[in-house]
Specification:
Elements: H1 9-31, H2 36-53, H3 68-74, E1 81-82, E2 94-97, E3 101-107, H4 121-138, E4 143-152, E5 161-172, E6 175-184, E7 187-198
Antiparallel strand pairs: 1-2, 2-3, 3-5, 4-7, 5-6, 6-7
Helix pairs in contact: 3-4
Bound molecules: Palmitoyl-CoA (PKZ).
Residues 129, 133, 137, 142, 144-147, 173-175, 195, 197, 199-200 line the site of Palmitoyl-CoA (PKZ).
Length: 201
Amino acid sequence: MTRTMDVPADLREASAELVAATRALMLAAATTTADADTVRAARATIAELAETLGVRPRSRVLRPPFDGPSRSRDTGGREPWALFTHNPMGIPLEIHFGADEARARLVANALHEGPPDSVHGGFSAHLLDCMLGTLMQARGSRSLTASLDLRYLRRTPLDEPLDLYSRIVETEGRKTVAEGWIECRGERTVEARGVFVRVEE
Ligand SMILES: CCCCCCCCCCCCCCCC(=O)SCCNC(=O)CCNC(=O)[C@H](O)C(C)(C)COP(=O)(O)OP(=O)(O)OC[C@H]1O[C@@H](n2cnc3c(N)ncnc32)[C@H](O)[C@@H]1OP(=O)(O)O
């Protein structure tokens, strides 16, 4: 494991920019209407880049510090915590923490499609697990998701602002119950309830 703090700040910044550009490339590659020659030329360029970047790969993505979310929480929601800065597979979320709750805003795009024009249910589950799990982390708790129950109430649209929320319901011993939901235009589309169990460091 390489922690973000183990690499120089300049490389961290360059890596975050590369990942953001890669996400833009993923969307462009998936939705392009360019002709076949242009697409093939792009493929060759990308293959070349993959070779350049893959010369000495790490076995894991850069890992942000565990206390990042709690430091963000300490700012009272002024400084959000950015998720998946170094991983283009993750859906980038900027989470604002309160004491026992969190919120984020996101516009899902064509890469996240499940039912036509709607967010894939697995991505909604991923987003809500992030909202709940990162809130646990922001409260300093080293906990893993033991269960995550979802209710898909209506379709969650692409290309529109989505509001994501999570909050702590109760804690008993090593277990914490948290819930979260996604809203579009003020209407809930998905609800989640998760049990988190604290583990040893
Ligand atoms: C060593 C690693 C270090 C890691 C440092 C963590 C750092 C954090 C970084 C954040 C990272 C982001 C995280 C994002 C969220 C994920 O993506 S987490 C990934 C998905 N989740 C997992 O992989 C978890 C896999 N499962 C497990 O590891 C274990 O089953 C668990 C959940 C830790 C529980 O195992 P255990 O410690 O042996 O717990 P156990 O003694 O059986 O039960 C403890 C209590 O929990 C209850 N419980 C257990 N499972 C359940 C359940 N499914 N439903 C309800 N209650 C349950 C038990 O009934 C028991 O209750 P009490 O009897 O105390 O009242």
